[in-house]
Amino acid sequence: MTFKEFGLDASLLEGIEASGYENATPVQEQVIPIILSGKDIIASAQTGTGKTAAFLLPIVNKLIASRRDDQVNALVIVPTRELAIQIAQNLEGLSYFTNISSIAVYGGGDGSNFSTEKQALSRGADVVICTPGRMIAHLNMGYVQLKGLQYLVLDEADRMLDMGFYDDIMKIISFLPPVRQNLLFSATMPVKIRELARKILHDPAEVNIAISKPPAKIVQEAFVVYETQKIPLIKWLLKSTNLKSTLIFCSKKHNVKQLTSELRRARFNVKEIHSDLDQSSREDVLLEFKSRRLPILVATDILSRGIDIDNIEMVINYDVPNDGEDYIHRIGRTARAETDGVAFTFVSEKEQNKFKTIEDLLGDPVRKAVVPEEFGATPEYTPRSKRSGGGGGRNRGGGGRGQGGHNGQGGPNGRGAQNSQGGHGGHGGGNRRFHHNGPKKKDGSPQAQQSQPKPNENNS
Ligand code: AMP
Prior knowledge:
CATH topology of the largest domain: Rossmann fold
Order of helices and strands: HHEHEHEHEHEHHEHEEHEHEHEEHEHE
Largest sheet: 7 strands, parallel
Radius of gyration: 23 Å
Bound molecules: adenosine monophosphate
Strand order of the largest sheet: 3-4-2-5-6-1-7
Helix content: 25-40%
CATH superfamily of the largest domain: P-loop containing nucleotide triphosphate hydrolases
Structural class: alpha/beta
CATH architecture of the largest domain: 3-Layer(aba) Sandwich
Number of domains: 2
Number of strands: 14
């Protein structure tokens, strides 16, 4: 499903495209229409499923029309500072071309951060992403403008309860207007979450995105390589395995076409399948592959779900899929029924964090295969897990945390707070990492990231 089909505002679609999202993930397909319809929601969805955009997009879309000036319009409560920053960055990319402002409010910074937050909370910011303790500190001072609040999101609610935030959450809620839309996301659904939901949500729609585990008999391995090593490596892999049935996945049509023609040039018997082919060509190719007249098929994710092809011996992920569900569906094409199968994933340097998110979702690291010496040196596998709190010093350097507008000017809404948590001008050096599909400005240059906390700061 494409994002256009949700009927989202053109300015938001532009941000989605700039963030590199093409199709909605399963959780987005289910959750976005429900939120747009105005219903409360309780959703079990883990990190890595695209759940953040699943709640941010409909909220921003609705706020474009209904935001109230000088107010906090949406409040997202999260367990950790890292998650607050990550969501704020995600939001910055998605809402870049809209008039929506946002700020992350979390502990651990110095006094200047607090006063920046105070300014935003008292003058108004459309979306506030906060950790509980820091938000209460502000609420207790009495200046937070919450009368217009329309949306409350509790993200990673199970983790918040595990961290002892129940009372803090209830206290924050006691400051909010009673009529609002409530959204609760949790990786797990223990009894205490159900109880919290009963207290906060009104007649919620329930969404359950269960992550299926891949069958144990699939042998999964990952090659950690440089992007330029992928083509020679795949040729070597295809030659040395010489199997009757190999399915190769690429995330983008363009890559499918490019890889297929590379392999053809190297005289492999290979064809491609993607949405640019008409239905009858697709069916022909599929039939050839199923009947084993065609040993190698290169496909986009249109083939990863629901298509029954028995006896695929090997799946190769030429790139890392965008979410864990796609990974599981892709590798699930092999080892069907009684047969065994093998699934290799090529992980380039810029895909390492994405792959780690998938490993986290699976609950186990995927074995790293040894790249033959003839391919030369390979990168270390040093991903930064989204879940690892502190310690990593992610995304550091650059502008301060403040209400900086685009290019230092006031935002289009005249409040100067365009996705403010960090000045757009802050291209400082340091250990900056851009999101794998990080938003690009219209001129194609990556957007500046916000300043990040020091590794030794507290979590909330
Ligand atoms: P989340 O589960 O929200 O932490 O998202 C996991 C990762 O998937 C993040 O890096 C998102 O930027 C990315 N993502 C979310 N939705 C999509 C999408 N529709 N297409 C591609 N990437 C996505």
